[in-house]
Amino acid sequence: MMLILCLVFWLLGLGLQAACEPKMLRFARLPDLTLPPSVRWGRFIFPLLGLVIVFWTNPVVAIFVWAGTFSVAAVIVAIVWASLARVLESRR
Fold this sequence. Notes:
The chain has one domain (2-91). The chain has five helices and no strands. It has helices spanning 2-20, 22-27, 37-40, 42-57, 62-91. The radius of gyration is 15 Å and the shape is elongated.
């Protein structure tokens, strides 16, 4: 349960990070997407919230779980973002 929860928080944080980066938006052909500042804070809050929850449940392996789920989440976000770019490119 802890792994899945931490993975979800990483996916949210990294997804928001990708949606806030101008280079990533150009890559996905979404240059007109702008998120409000309150939503942009989620890219910092979600990973830290995941770290706090992991430390709260099992402090001995917290850093390893947090870093491991980051690696998995980064791969998932990269694949989804590339797929989104491909789908939007094929629709044009």
